[in-house]
Every structure is written in structure tokens, then in C-alpha cells.
Design a protein that fits this description.
Layout (H helix, E strand, L loop, with lengths): L34 H18 L7 H8 L3 H7 L3 H19 L8 H18 L1 H9 L6 H21 L7 H23 L6 H21 L3
Helix pairs in contact: 1-4, 4-7, 5-7, 5-9, 8-9
């Protein structure tokens, strides 16, 4: 369900380099980067690297070199590579939810379609890390899995708000969770086959499957 948004400067080495920025003339030196700001820049850099290659393909040495800092300083902020990766997954989750938000005033069905469309647009831009997260062993890590599951729940609950459904009992909730799994499988297949299916057609299919499944659930006393 997660992937990475590239939001770091083009020159990686400047993303988290140097505690003190250079000064000129008599201007006083700029303040050192505080802990949270440096950490934010490192996470942004990590997201860029993990958006290009899988977890196993990115080394701590490369991360430190790209940031222009020592491994020791990198470990000061993130004790292990896994801790660093978890931080990027958490940030990716926040970005996914932010970028798939839809206006509450929209027509329910249109809001549902817009949410699914925004999700597919996000996934289409970040296919490799999305597939890697769902398929890799790291994705089974308990903390990463917890972040992914919480994001699934939040994303599903938001889409259910956009679905034209009044009754939302246990069966509808079960349908929604099953549907999110279907969305993940369908989008991975879509990416694997180089998106031979039009994105709009896939969106319409996913929306129809959800609505039909909810209708079936309501018909059984959801």
C-alpha cells in the first residue's frame, strides 16, 4: 500500500551535509541544523534512494556517502539500517494518505472514484518501491507491517466514507479489508504488465468491485 514520494533536492550530497552552512564576509555563520531538521533531510534522502532501489540494494555506506556525512553520524540518528528504513516507510505512509485525501463535500461516488484514482496515480509514479514493500522480507517486519496495516485501515476507512453506503456493519468492514487486498494485488499485476490496462479502466473496475461486494454484504445482513 506504500511507496515513496521524491521530495529532496536534485543534488543528493547537499541534502543532509554539514552541520554549519558556509558564510561569507562578515555575515555570522548560520545556525547548526537541529536534530529534527537533519533527521527530516536524511529521511527525505532515504526515501529518494529507496524509491529507486529495494531495501537490500541500498547500503549504509551509500546512504552516508549520498548524505555527505560519516556512517557514525548517520548511526547517531538511526541506530540501524532497519530503523532508517522504518522511518522512510512511516513518512511514505503519511504522504500516501495526504496525497489521496479527497474533499468531503464531493458527491460520495465521485469522492470514492477520486480517492482510487489518486491512489493509482501515486502508485504509478512509484511502482518499484511499492512492489518491493509488498513482496520483500522487510515488508514482513513487525513494525513495518504495523505501519502498512494502519495505513490500509486509514485508507480503507476514508474510501468507505466516500462510498454511497449508509449501513456500515461488520460485514461491510470485512468486505473493505478484503477489497484493499484485492486493490494491492491488482495494482501489482498492473505494474508487472507495464500498465497495459488503462488506468481509468482499472479505477472503474476497482470501484465496481467494491460497490458490488458491499451490496452483496448488505444483502446478507451486514
Amino acid at each position: 500500500m506504500l511507496c515513496y514520494e521524491r521530495n529532496v533536492p536534485a543534488r543528493r550530497a547537499t541534502a543532509a551535509r554539514a552541520d554549519v552552512a558556509p558564510s561569507s564576509g562578515r555575515d555570522p555563520p548560520r545556525a547548526r541544523l537541529d536534530v529534527e531538521e537533519r533527521r527530516r533531510r536524511l529521511v527525505a534522502l532515504g526515501m529518494e534512494l529507496f524509491s529507486e532501489r529495494t531495501y537490500d540494494d541500498v547500503s549504509i555506506d551509500e546512504l552516508a556517502q549520498a548524505a555527505g556525512i560519516s556512517k557514525g553520524l548517520l548511526y547517531h540518528y538511526f541506530p540501524t539500517k532497519r530503523d532508517f528504513y522504518v522511518a522512510t516507510v512511516r513518512e511514505a505512509a503519511e504522504q500516501l494518505l495526504a496525497r489521496t485525501a479527497t474533499p468531503e463535500h464531493m458527491d460520495p461516488l465521485e469522492r470514492l472514484r477520486a480517492g482510487v484514482d489518486a491512489y493509482l496515480e501515486y502508485v504509478s509514479k512509484h511502482g518499484k518501491p511499492y512492489q518491493a514493500l509488498l513482496r520483500s522480507g522487510v515488508g514482513a517486519d513487525t513494525e513495518v507491517a504495523s505501519i502498512v496495516d494502519q495505513t490500509r485501515q486509514a485508507f480503507g476507512a476514508r474510501l468507505l466514507e466516500g462510498a454511497p453506503v449508509k449501513e456500515r456493519g461488520p460485514l461491510v468492514e470485512l468486505v473493505l479489508r478484503g477489497w484493499v487486498g484485492f486493490v494491492e494485488a491488482a495494482t501489482v499485476e498492473w505494474l508487472d504488465h507495464k500498465r497495459r490496462i488503462d488506468r481509468g479502466a482499472l479505477r472503474d473496475l476497482l470501484v465496481k468491485v467494491l460497490l458490488d461486494a458491499i451490496t452483496a454484504g448488505l444483502g446478507t445482513g451486514a
